[in-house]
Write a structure and sequence with these properties.
sigma factor activity, ECF_Sigma-70_Domain, Arc Repressor Mutant, subunit A, single chain, 303 residues, RNA_pol_sigma_r2, RNA_pol_sigma70_r2, alpha+beta
Length: 303
């Protein structure tokens, strides 16, 4: 995907809300509506890049697909997940939500996240599973929630690169905070030139939509490309705000649409420049940010 295809946060959140409303009106169940919308986006990402690029009105395509899935459920009410074409074995595991029933892979991932604090969650897992455990790229990608083996290999490669950079040029919390807040200012003022100057020439940005929103599906490389992707994602729209607050122990960026946290962005900063951007857009991973007692700016929350 090209950076020009980045979808603004406001459009992304509105689109998912709209699809949930469509499914709920047809099925009368919030739980089933969530399942239908998830399946709708699975079908969207099941298309080839060329096929997606050829769809001139993505929301119309998604709406039509959601309605078709709902009709399938209404005409085959006893088939459960067969109506969405999803087998029981294909359902995402819920073990991580129940500590007593946590899978072995989830337990491994939790340990990794507590050890490699300087990396984003998926990077930490990919780094250790690839370098220490020796998992294949496909297994690494599956464990860290990626669909393509190349994405797991990319995460591990970038994690190794960041480890080398941090050992050679460590960044203090104060330096990190200053750069992160400068990035926020550049985004708020939509200053592409200044934003690009704060990024390393070989910066990489990851957009974790989890297949549940219309986000970029591949990493974006290079200061100009990443700057344009971020500005497209954070495009100033009514009811959208961008704040700097603690994420995973260091200053990051939090995007809110209305009162809902729609994105959490972690920044890997070395030698006064951003080397890595990790944008979490997956609604499931943002649930803790949208609990009744939301963190205040500068409080710490982990994603």
């Amino acid at each position: 995907m090209d950076h020009a295809e980045a979808v603004p946060i406001a459009e992304m959140v509105d689109e998912r809300r709209y699809l949930l409303d469509v499914a709920y009106r047809m099925l009368g169940s919030a739980h089933e509506a969530e399942e239908v919308v998830d399946e709708t986006y699975r079908r969207w990402y099941g298309l080839s890049d060329v096929a997606r690029a050829g769809i001139t009105a993505p929301r119309s395509w998604l709406t039509k697909t959601a309605r078709e899935i709902c009709l399938g459920r209404l005409t085959r009410p006893d088939c459960g997940d067969e109506a969405t074409g999803t087998a029981e074995s294909d359902k995402p595991s819920q073990a991580s939500e129940h500590p007593g029933g946590m899978s072995q892979e989830a337990q491994i991932r939790r340990v990794l996240l507590n050890v490699l604090d300087s990396l984003s969650p998926a990077e930490r897992a990919a780094f250790v599973l690839d370098d220490v455990v020796g998992m294949t790229p496909g297994k690494v990608a599956d464990t860290v929630g990626r669909t393509e083996p190349s994405e797991g290999a990319e995460l591990a490669r970038w994690a190794r690169h960041r480890q080398r950079l941090q050992y050679s040029r460590p960044t203090t919390p104060q330096q990190h905070d200053a750069v992160a807040r400068a990035v926020r200012q550049a985004c708020v003022h939509e200053d592409a030139g200044h934003l690009a100057s704060l990024l390393s020439p070989d910066v990489t940005a990851f957009f974790d939509g989890g297949g549940k929103v219309r986000a970029l599906v591949r990493p974006v490389h290079g200061s100009r490309q990443v700057a344009h992707s971020l500005l497209a994602l954070l495009a100033c729209r009514p009811r959208t705000s961008l704040t700097a607050q603690s994420v995973n122990g260091r200053t990051g960026l939090v995007v809110r649409y209305d009162d809902q946290v729609a994105a959490v962005i972690s920044l890997g900063i070395t030698d006064h420049h951003v080397e890595q951007v990790w944008a979490v857009l997956n609604p499931d991973k943002l649930r803790s940010w949208n609990q009744p007692a939301n963190p205040t700016p500068d409080s710490d929350t982990t994603v």
